[in-house]
Structure formats: C-alpha cells, structure tokens
Amino acid sequence: SQKIEQNSEALNIQEGKTATLTCNYTNYSPAYLQWYRQDPGRGPVFLLLIRENEKEKRKERLKVTFDTTLKQSLFHITASQPADSATYLCALDMENGGSQGNLIFGKGTKLSVKP
Amino acid sequence: DGGITQSPKYLFRKEGQNVTLSCEQNLNHDAMYWYRQDPGQGLRLIYYSQIVNDFQKGDIAEGYSVSREKKESFPLTVTSAQKNPTAFYLCASTPSEGDTQYFGPGTRLTVL
C-alpha cells in the first residue's frame, strides 16, 4: 500500500535561514504532491501543488521540488521568519482512480523559527 | 464570505452518547471529506462524498456515520460504537475540477 513519510517530526532553525522539509513516498507514483500549513488548533491551509511532470515550483519565499526517481519532495522556505513557525503537511493523491481529490497525508513536520 | 464552517469548535460528550458534528460549505464544491487528527498522527480519512446522496467509507469509518442530503452540508455522527472518539475532527471540500482541499477550522471532541 502507499506510504508517505515526513522524515522529521520537528525542525528548529534560526530566523533568516532556509528551512528544508522532506517528504518521501513508496509503493506509488502520484500524479501530484501538495504541501499544506497547519497552525495549532486550526485546519490545514493549502500552499503549493506540484505535478509529476514538474521539477520545481515557487511561490514567494516557498519552493517545492519533486523528484519522481527518488520518490521525494523537498519544501523550502527561504529567509525564514518566526511567523513561518507551524506544522507543514505533505499530501499525495490517493491510488484510487475513481475518487479524484482524495489525498493521503503525512504526519507533518513542526517547524520552529527562532528570532 | 465563502468558506467552510464547522461547529461547535469544542464539544464534550459523555461515554455512550452519540454526537453530531456540523460541516457546511458555501463554495459550491462537490466533494466533501471528514478526517480525524490525533497527536503525532497524520490526518486519517473517515468518510468522503463526491456527490449529493452518495458517500464512501474511508480508512477508519467504524463507529462513525454521515449523510449528504444537501451539497452544502456533510454532518458527521460519532456513535457510541467508536471506542476512542476523543480527537480533532476536520472537514474539507474540493471543487469538481480541482485537486486541493479546503479545510474548516475543526472541532475538538472530548469524551468525558
């Protein structure tokens, strides 16, 4: 069955540095991969989607890469700020052809940016 | 304002009682989802619905029930058969042509 792993439960970095979060998956070739941000006690918020034929996508200080050979996505936040502190979730489309929009989520990485 | 609303934000229930969590959206989205989130765990899919009057079980449907009588509404009932109901419950929706999910603010259910 599909498996998705976010390698670090927590990541602590200094303000201004680049945060890099990792998402790995096995037993599957997803059509796309998404990243969400979740603040404590709130619902996740969509950040970026990258498709299998795309290597990289950017949005302001955010960058996502997608390596289908390594079965890995990297999520970068450049010039990180304390306001970027949150849990970041990786999600893949489910291997279930009849249910468009169904996702499988990783457990998330809690990012803390220290001033 | 368009979006997804969940109510209540906090809910307490005694063991043995059924409780219904509300989820409403005015985004005109076709698909709706219910997830459960526990500390240290990812989101786990309980039920989903792609269209009105139709829904399917997710990975952890036991002890839960849903209905989809209107496009805008997808209530979740946590029954007394659910052994560990204390959790954070999240509702989400997706447009018919879209891939991203839009989440509500969540309901935290505590069983006393």
Shape of chain A: globular
Shape annotation of chain B? globular
Write down the Rg of chain A.
14 Å
| Helix vs. strand class of chain B | mainly beta
Mean pLDDT over the residues of chain A: 91
**Structural class from helices and strands of chain A?**
mainly beta
What order do the SSEs of chain B take from the amino end to the carboxyl end, as H and E? Answer: EEEEEEEEEEE
SSE series of chain A: EEEEEEEEEEE
What pair of chains forms the biggest interface?
A: A-B, 24 and 26 residues
Low-pLDDT residue spans of chain A: none
Largest sheet of chain B: 7 strands, mixed
Indicate the radius of gyration of chain B in whole angstroms.
13 Å
Number of helices of chain B: 0
Structural overview:
The complex is a heterodimer of chains A (115) and B (112). Chain A is mainly β and 115 residues long. Chain A has no helices and eleven strands. Chain A has strands at residues 3-6, 10-14, 19-26, 32-38, 45-51, 56-59, 62-67, 72-77, 86-93, 103-105, 109-114. In chain B, strands 2, 4, 5, 6, 9, 10 and 11 form a seven-stranded mixed beta sheet that branches. A four-stranded antiparallel beta sheet of chain B has the order 1-3-8-7, with no helix packed on it. Classes of the chains: A mainly beta (115), B mainly beta (112).
